[in-house]
Amino acid sequence: MARHGKPKPLIDWNRVRRWVKTATPWVELFVALTALALILIGKA
User: Fold this and answer.
1) Where does the pLDDT of residue 3 fall: very low under 50, low under 70, confident under 90, or very high at 90 and above?
2) How many angstroms separate the CA atoms of 17 and 23, rounded?
3) Which of 1, 2, 14, 35 is 20 to 30 A distant from 20 in Cα terms?
4) 39 pLDDT higher than 70
5) 10 Å Cβ neighbour count for 14?
6) Is 2 helix (H, G, I), strand (E, B) or coil?
7) Which helix or strand (DSSP H or E) is residue 42 part of?
């Protein structure tokens, strides 16, 4: 059963870009909190 037309791209870059734009602030917040926790643990 051969399908005609363009093959679907492996990655939907538009969706990825939109997701990254949404996720970036949360990732930065998570990284900052993790770094803070590591610093506090290191001092303890």
Assistant:
1) low
2) 10
3) 35
4) yes
5) 9
6) coil
7) helix 13-43
SS3 43: helix
In sequence order, what DSSP letters do the residues of 8-41 get, joined into one string? PPSS-HHHHHHHHHHHHHHHHHHHHHHHHHHHHH
Distance CA 22, CA 40 (A): 29
Q: Which amino acid is at 32?
A: A
Q: Is the pLDDT of residue 2 over 70?
A: no
pTM for the complete prediction?
0.50
* Residues in the chain, total: 44
Tens of pLDDT, residues 17-33: 999 999 999 999 999 99
